[in-house]
Amino acid sequence: MDYQNLLPLFSNNELAINFLKQKNLLKNSCLCTACQTPQNWTKYQKTKDGFSWRCQNRTCSRFKLTTSIRKDSFFENSNIDLPKWIQIIYLWGMRGSNKNAATQVGVSQRAIVDAFASLREICQRHLLANPIQLGGPGIVLEIDESCFSHKPKHHRGRIPQQPIWVFGIVDTSYKPAIGYMEIVEQRNAATLLPIIQSVARPGSIIHSDEWRAYRGIQGMGFAHKTVNHSVNFVEPDGTHTQTVESYWNRKKTLIKSMLGCRRIFLHYYLQEFMWRDRFGSRAFENIILHMNNFYSL
Ligand SMILES: [Zn+2]
What we know:
The protein is built from nine helices and eight strands. It has helices at about 5, 15-20, 80-95, 100-105, 110-130, 190-200, 240-255, 265-280, 285-290, and strands at about 40-45, 50-55, 65-70, 140-145, 165-170, 180-185, 205-210, 225. Strand 5 (about 165-170) and strand 6 form a beta hairpin. Helix 4 (about 100-105) packs across helix 5 and helix 5 (about 110-130) packs across helix 8 (about 265-280).
């Protein structure tokens, strides 16, 4: 969906509503909760959406009473106009900053933060329902841990943050590499090996540094090659972990441009990043598809 086609939806309420009905993000039919007959779609100026479902069954206790067109939808608990919502989803897809999005859409930054968070939650729910698996026979996975804490620049005098370790696995058969990331409390074998077991497909070849927690990998049935970083960046046989290192760098640059590193935010950002690795090239279309899976209309 290109910008030119979307642009009219950002300001025209009726076009926006038709688009959302077409995408199944608003109901296309709605039964009355009392008499269970289909309600009529009617103009209704008392609501900001300008339309409403209404029971037309004269014998029903809800005769002529209205039901919001947002009922059961992603937008049910939001006060933001539907055309603005479409623009917000578009800007999120384009990685717009909170500040720019607030200005462009004409809502508060707080509203954008909440709206973007609810889109990030869709990413998280999608990944929960479709757990990530990487690699496969003969495919090289690089693994590494990385510390995501950094001193917040503008908050001098605060208690220094605890380091937050993230364990990552990247699949080098994709260009650019796609990954899996998870915040870990500890960097020991008991924590890291089960993650590898659940994410890496059988037959994968795992490249890592010589961190002792990784010694058990061979015993799990994976080929395992290590690089000794005190001697080489790339081993003579070509083993390296440079793909996962540049993956970390890209994600950390994004984190720094966002909110810094509070643990709960970081968790959601990692989910968003993993989602974008896979679906980000058509983020607008894909997030709409994935919203559909969590709202039965
Ligand atoms: Zn009714």
